[in-house]
Amino acid sequence: MDRRHFVFGIGAAAAFSSVARDGHAECGELTAVEFVRELYEKQARLHAAKAPLSQEEFHALFSSDLRQLMQAPRRIQSNAPIGPLLNAFFGWGVLPGTEVTIGKITLVSGNYEGPATVGIDLNYRGESHRILVHAVREKEVWLVANIIHDSGKSLVAHYRGITGR
To answer: Which of these, 91, 95, 114, 141, could form a disulfide with 149 (CB 3.0-4.6 Å)?
Structure first.
């Protein structure tokens, strides 16, 4: 092998690796980061327009385990404090109509093909927030398995608390 074949081989290997790496997205399938980006951009638009999803559409975005937890009977606590409401996607006290700006979205852990934890920088009411979304694939569809809000409390923990599970 001479220098020309060696350089050609290196170039071909680099080209092939970039095609293989990007090939997943070329087939029309989203990566975990792309799924979370599309989901949050849509939710921000709907939230600002005060146009919530139907209950069926909302639940369809979540993994089967989280969906079962969300739909489980809830315990009614007589001494429960009245306080801010939880927006599943954005966190505590983000009322409908609040403008939410989506910032940087990055893969925190896992694989682009899933399962993955994706970090999202949000801004609303002049404050920066960081959300972590656990994305999984069930039957070739991306779904949300958990969301950890910047308060440190997760969506799963919230629903476990109100359902007693």
So the answer is: 91
